[in-house]
Design goal:
Order of helices and strands of chain B: HHHH
Shape of chain B: elongated
Strand order of the largest sheet of chain A: 1-2
Order of helices and strands of chain A: HHHHHEHEH
Structural class of chain B: mainly alpha
Largest sheet of chain A: 2 strands, antiparallel
Oligomer: heterodimer
Radius of gyration of chain B: 17 Å
Chain lengths: ~200, ~110
Amino acid sequence: MADDLVLDTAIRNWVLVPLSVVMVLIGVLRYFVSKLIRSSQNPDTKAIKEGQAVIRARNLRSAAHLIPSKSFRSRRIYFTNEENGLLYVPKEEAQKAQAQMFQDPNMAMDMMKKNLSMIIPQTLTFAWVNFFFSGFVAAKIPFPLTPRFRSMLQNGIDLSTVDVSYVSSRSWYFLNLFGLRGFFSLILGEENATDDA
Amino acid sequence: MATQDKRSDTSDFPEIVNTDNLQSNMKPIYYSRTFLSIIGGVIAGIWGFTGFTGFVFYFVVMLAASFGLAAKAKFSADSYFDSWNRVLLDGILGGLMSFVLFWTFAYDIVHIF
């Protein structure tokens, strides 16, 4: 009895496909919006200098076995010398620099924008799904799960004898949320902000 | 897959890894696995695999992908990657979610509705 529910074609046309299409479009929109509102960071000369010095030190470290040990030592002293070494930072200055990094308004704004741009569309879409698409069976997942998942997957459906494979649209939303990450990495190229890790 | 050789020429010193090339070599692996898991999901749904069979099909597809990638890397992982694990195992779990999504979608469209 619980097997082989016949589901209306209208569910497929008006629930599954629109939900997936909406999620894809929102992901694309979020990608472009995050590109547009990313504030153009004026590069800080001091920070770039330090970054390049670190890169140089890293190259020295990784290629250390290819140069004579005397030249390696002299290069190392150049970097870590206490008076004028490139990488040497006295202790007080290091703490000051770190505190300043956290108060730097640009970095805080960027982090906040990135977090918001990820949380708000997800919340809105979830609320939309709950409002419009609750209370009926939306899809059947092709693999069986234990009955303990019933409350998670079937939360709009109030019958307890329906097979756990028949899920509500909320679980279709979550399935899309996780499954479309790979799809986005294919169509949007590399750095897309859809990773909610 | 435009891979670039990244090993230094001496053979008994610890090797230098050119991280730019390594990362650009990782990209085809990731893209091809994602693409194959999506296509595999659609195929599994259309054919009507259910339950365990579907997951077995997914791992078969991933094995075929690993074999193809290893063949492209001329069966010597050392000249293009830093370990065999990257060629064989990386990205399998990430593709699983995409596989399940497209498998569910295709299965529902073809068999239920």
